[in-house]
Amino acid sequence: MNISIFDVTGPVMIGPSSSHTAGAAKLGRIARLIAEKPFKKVSFGLHGSFADTYKGHGTDIALVAGALGMYEYDERLSQAFEIAKKEGIEYEFYKTELDDMHENSVKITFTFDDGTQCNVWGSSIGGGQIKIVRINEFDTEFNATAPTLIVNQYDKKGVISNISKVLFDCNINIAVMKLSRTARGKNACTVIETDGKIPENVVNTLRGIENIISVQAINV
Amino acid sequence: MSYNSIQELFNLAEERDVPLSQIVLETESVLTERSNEDIYNEMERRYEVMKSSAKNALFESRKTAGGLIEGITKTHYSYTLKGDTLSGDFINKVMSRALSCSEVNASMGKICAAPTAGSCGIIPAVVISLEEALNLPKKDVLDALLSASGIGAVITKNATVAGAEGGCQAECGVAAAMAACAAVQMKGGTRRQCINAVSIALMNVMGLVCDPVAGLVQVPCAQRNASQAVNAIISADMALAGMESIIPVDQIIDAMYKVGKMLPMELKETAKGGIAHTPAGKEIFNKIFGK
Lengths: 220, 291
Description:
- The complex is a heterodimer.
- By secondary structure, chain A is α+β, with helices and mostly antiparallel strands.
- Helices cover 28% and strands 35% of the residues of chain A.
- Chain A has helices at residues 18-35, 49-57, 59-67, 80-86, 159-169, 200-207, and strands at residues 12-14, 41-48, 90-95, 104-111, 117-126, 129-135, 138-142, 148-154, 174-181, 187-194, 212-218.
């Protein structure tokens, strides 16, 4: 069994829908952690059931709440639009078709002050659980139920070995590791789920490794 | 020691002659590196959220989007308290509590999903009502919730609990199966009776579609929380009476999953079929969203 009973009897959350409200809030929150930097605008491309029923389930409110960093049990969740306006963050929704994705899926686009963007694709897969399936140009798959490292690197020999050495030296066990690249020798993305929390100093050490472009840790 | 099917969970408990909840507890402890005490405390915190959501709409109606179920709990609970019902005090209290959780949920209030928010009233309604009726100690209640959660974990792993993927049978149906297991354990039934209750509850709900009016988690969700809580109770009673499931429980779960896959998208939370798509249902949609 690899599913915690508290992912079944739970989450404790603000209603009305675990997949359309709590899952949406978590997608927004995890995407914000992936984007890392402060942003001025966030857009949500809604697919499938998200596109059809988002208003009734408060999916739109929950996505914005998550992008603002709120947890799915935060009692301020229903005021997310007002809070976003106060913080000067723009948000928008549009309906879209995302090929081969789960019924409850969204493409989240953060726009930063310098005009650059970060895109995250994810699905709400039931009971408040989510999976992230794509980050910018890289396919991936993780649930954000375990601490997760997201590493962008150049596709060069030895990078993975250096990453795993740092984790070994810090006594962190790798539970799952997924690697994808745009083309041989170009950019690559490594997603690593670990058994223990990932401390800030580990992230900084990883950032110092040759051929690594960026590192983010999501400590759930 | 772990399990990936109900049969495996059952076998592990049989081998050691312990309740299903003991195996679930130990498995959770290994998986999440938490102590037994910590797991009990966490379950108790969730049970407290369940208790408040099962109570908070009994006496006061809650404001919900479109107002489709505003006040239905209060009305049903008043009827229950008059004591002149067809199905009796116990069943009507069960239904009142299930309705309360649904109404609180629809009002963007705090609930504990079990296994989902749309089905959040079923397990609380059954467990709270049995705790009261059987006057059980807290540990027995938490153990019943552990067993129910173990059943839910297997179904989540091997099938689905998302209405958008499996229809209402995967949400309210799975909640009823989990609650049926808890109910048998609370009544002192055997491990086999627990498993049979899961099978019976799922058989009773096979094929139920997810067709929320106007896409809101209100109608028929609240009514189905009430009726599936009752399904859990009667399934537990059938199992306790000695009824065996002629189909193994894991095969029933697999069948439920396959039926969910066969259901067209219109009947899976999209509000494009079922009662959501009746002329009256569409009219409500237009009224609320002004289209």
